[in-house]
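Pasting as-is:
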Amino acid sequence: MDCVFCRILKGELPARFVYEDEGFVAFHDIRPKAPVHVLVVPREHVEKLSDYPDSEEGERKLGALFNRANRVARLLGLSGYKLQVHVGEKGGQEVYHVHVHVMGSPG
């Protein structure tokens, strides 16, 4: 598997990290679309958001993902922000590893 996010997680590719814990990392997008544009990425490789099971486990994992996105927004001092997720080719997904875009302006 040649997933760019997995390679970042393994330290094979550089990234500017803003947050890390046992289950997630957050780093600056290399092609920002806002003054602050960070990606929140689970360490576990799951290709698409729709691949999470419709179960308590899936709910727990999705809840943790969005919890981390909110945590990262607070850490970055964003008072207003947008969370964006692309799902599948028709949804505009470019990297097939689940991730949430956190975009906003500081202050």
